[in-house]
Amino acid sequence: MDPIILQSTLWIGGIGLFSAVALAVADKYLSIPEDPRVGSVLALLPGINCGGCGYAGCADYARGIVLHGAEGNLCAPGGAACAHAIASFLGVAPVEVEKRTALVLCCGDDTETIRRSAYNGINECAAAQATAGGDKGCTYGCLGYGTCARICPVSAITVANGLARVDKSLCIACGKCIPACPRKIIKFVPAAATVHVLCCSKDKGPAVKKVCGTGCIACRMCTKVADGAINMDGFLAVVDYSKPLTSEKPIEVCPTHCIRKA
Amino acid sequence: MKPESPSDLYIVSSSPHTHSGESVERIMLDVLIALAPAFLAACWFFRLEALRLTFVCVAACLLTEWLCRKAMGRARAISDLSATVTGVLLAFNLPPALPTWMAVAGSVFSIAIAKQVFGGLGYNPFNPALAGRAFMLISFTGAMTTWSQSTWLQKIAGAGADAVTTATPLGFAKEALKSGQALPVFNTGLLSDFFIGNMNGCIGETSALALLLGAAYLLYRKVITWHIPAAYLLTVLAYAVILSLASPATAIPPLFHLLSGGLILGAFFMATDMVTTPVTRRGMLIFGIGCGIITMVIRTVKTGAYPEGVSFAILIMNAFTPLINRATRNRVFGTKK
Amino acid sequence: MQTTPSPFTFSGGIHPSYNKELCSGAPIRELPMPARLVVPLSQHLGAPAKPLVNVGDTVKAGQLIAEQNGFISAPVHAPAGGKVAAIEETLTAAGRTCAAIVIEPDGSQEWELLPRIADWRTADKKDLLAQIGAAGVVGMGGAGFPTRIKLSPPADKPIDTVILNGAECEPYLTSDHRMMLEFAREIRVGAEIIRQILGAKSLRIAIEDNKPDAIAAMEQAFQGIDGDVAVTVLRTSYPQGSEKQQIYSVTGREVPRGGLPMDVGCVVENVSTAYAVYDAVANGRPLVRRVISVTGDAVQQPSNLLAPAGTLYSDLVAACGGLRGKPAKVISGGPMMGFTVSTLNVPTGKTASGLLLLSAGKISSYTSQACISCGRCVDACPMGLNPSELSQCIEADDIESAEQIALMDCVECGCCAYVCPAHRPMVHHMRRGKALVMAKRSAAKK
């Protein structure tokens, strides 16, 4: 055999063997032992690392549960099933979780609302908001530059015609979009709720009418047919999700159609 | 509700609200204007060949750019003139008799692989024209180093009056270097030929005079600064002076080093490509010095395969650009000097 | 008293077209009292003032209508006598909303002034500061930092140099220029009061060399003054009026990173602020009006107007003969650092030095083109930053890297965006990045 081939083979093989031994030794003597329960809890989590629980990913949350006594029901994507599995693994009573979804509380798209200025800048909501207070006529409504859609880890939010919408069937309720919205109009609502007031404007009726064809004008019609599940907060009708509201009457009576099914 | 017509609304934007008026298009147009004298010189020395190659390269670059942008679903492409500049620069780096299909292949590589794959203008790490040329030099080595017959050698002392060569001056020198022969003395009569562009070489690189005219325009328009070209040329000059002092018999005289090959074209038009070169003044000087050293190493090391090293020098330094930018940040106002 | 060219010039900067001739020759003119004044409660840096009047009250000109609310805050006074018609939210020039007291002037000329301090030379420093604070004087160059606080540096930061900022490097604007020409004596008195309060050895009046008449006016006004006083002539270059750059141009000292002018023994006051200090001390008049340049190619008759705080932009425009054509941009302030507004229904305040109306031909649009790394912004940045790299980091939401390469040192002067051939919204990126950094920092604190 050519000595060069032999030599190279021996050298490379030798280095490989030495490294393998070194790694094996390091693994045996230098590794930090981790509570085996962390791995077990991690296996129960969905593993999508959305960060919605407030921890830096699923492994961190698993460590939080096992080592620091964090609540076992913080995983929104995992939902009730996940919370139950964790509780039974840890041998504690399960805490009930209600399935939630994020919702954009605005339905004023570009057909219904006006713009008060022509924005020329970065395609990002906070940047638009910081430029003369945003270009939308309504100072409460969705700006439509899609910051929430870009931050959503599961692409559940789409922007169409200047308005962001959450697809309930995709939303994992991680909550990332909520602080991302500079106008703070994305809120968590119970996933089971179907009737929503899709407006955030606290302005009086005439002021709302000036800028939006589908804003809440504080006519109070809905409050009369909602059995106490819709109340007025100043000049804005707000759904009280703690009360059952399945009747679709409010949708029918709202003159500006800002109460919608979602 | 009917939205107000946007033209009735005041524009809102972040400050500032005024602008110098400069644009990418204008910069590219200036580069094209600056390349015009060299193009005319190329047409004079290489006749229809220059016209053919330039046309083919520009057309192929524009078409590739348009197709790429369309395929990627991105807006705006050929109107910024950058593909035109790439096409012209690539053509200037090709030998006159090169087959058309090769020029097309090089153009497609320049735009599609070296530029658009990275995201288009602004994102490409390497100078597209030079990347295209390097690709062609490796793929079509024979055709890329075949030069037309020329009589430039006649003026060299010691060569016969009927001496005809198909080599570039640098290729000729490299052969002599490799075979250990002493170089014939390059004399001053030849120097003026070199300066005007009467020698073998790529179509756009031969006429130092025309290129310097264009370079002066770029400097006047402040499209480029003196830093990279000066650092580059002075490094080459210094290196060549040291070599010729060390062994006068086997070294090309320093002035011939400056005027031969693609040095002038490279130093003023390609080592100054904004996208692929450093942004700080100190970084530009380092870039130029690096290009100079690598060029001379490739040109003068006996065992090297290539007689000319400008393209590779600039490409190699392109790779260092992010590092140089990092290392040469300006001092932030209010921090320690 | 002497005149010297500035011994230093900061690196970077730009030379925009100044367009000052539009109204630099227009003498200051008093605005006819508008029918309605919308006086914002936040015309300064810090907490908004707390209203002291109710709807329906009648107020006198100069009467305190909202009190200082906290340490960094300033009181607000009625700019004219009249009836309080409403207390409501208004849109401010910076694009935020804030509470405002709406006054309908009744034409009465009666003023409610503070007691004058005629003999200010022998007055106690504390009394002078209290007077300046009570008069609601704030920095009139733009930031609106309460002057009372600026003039009370801690004992371990002795001030040796007061710089009177008359650079007015913003294109188009001429309000400070006109003030220097028409109120030179008063500015001198204000400067002397400031110097006395701070116990500063040196006084420098910094003016760019494109305003020779202002230089001459200041030279004449400061004739015969004692101590180390000089008019420092700055090379015309934007941003010479920026505090840090100006201190460097005048003294060669660099305000350390994250520091304040007092860290290098300097205090910079705008010439209009000096006038306000004079007016507060010598006349007892609170800061309720200022000179504002209403200019640009989309206004009929560019003017320098003495306008009460709370004047709506629409009233300013009307006083200048109305619009000429359709403005594409309405800018509160100058073209380099001003804010665009979406309506003329916005009130002025103590810091509004200009209202600029530009037609479509005078403005440029931002694009989302990629950076071509030309390095012009690097050359232009007066803070020594790499705006190209910063903007790309922020675009990629890599805020940590941006912070590492000194994002927070950006002064938003706009030089980078001015020179950018790709027309990138550089300052917009910086602002967004800085907001994200601030959000991150406040989240970390919690």
The overall pLDDT of chain A, averaged over residues, is 89
CATH class of the largest domain in chain A: Alpha Beta
Q: How many domains in all of chain A? A: 2
Strand order of the largest sheet of chain A: 1-5
Content-based structural category of chain A: alpha+beta
Can you summarize the main beta sheet of chain B? none
**DSSP strand count of chain B:** 1
| Structural class designation of chain B | mainly alpha
Describe the structure.
The complex is a heterotrimer of chains A (about 260), B (about 325) and C (about 450). With about 260 residues, chain A is α+β, with helices and mostly antiparallel strands. Helix content of chain A is about 35%, strand content about 15%. In chain A, strand 7 (about 230-235) and strand 8 (about 235-240) form a beta hairpin. Chain B has 2 domains: about 25-145, no CATH class; about 160-330, no CATH class. Chain B has 14 helices and 1 strand, in the order E-H-H-H-H-H-H-H-H-H-H-H-H-H-H. Chain B has helices spanning about 25-45, 50-70, 80-90, 100-115, 130-140, 140-145, 170-180, 190-195, 210-220, 225-245, 255-260, 265-270, 280-300, 310-325; one strand at about 10. Among the domains of chain C are: about 1-25 and about 115-285, NADH-ubiquinone oxidoreductase 51kDa subunit (Rossmann fold); about 375-445, no CATH class. In chain C, the strands form 4 sheets. A 6-stranded mixed sheet of chain C has the order 2-15-14-18-16-17. Chain C has a 5-stranded parallel sheet with strand order 1-12-11-10-13, sandwiched between helices. A 4-stranded antiparallel sheet of chain C has the order 3-9-8-5, with no helix packed on it. In chain C, helix 1 packs across helix 4, helix 3 runs parallel beside helix 5 (about 210-220) and helix 10 (about 385-395) crosses helix 13 (about 425-445). The chains are: A alpha+beta (about 260), B mainly alpha (about 325), C alpha/beta (about 450). Chains B and C meet through strand 1 and helix 1 of B and strand 16, strand 17, helix 9, helix 12 and helix 13 of C. Strand 2 (about 120) of chain A pairs parallel with strand 1 of chain B.
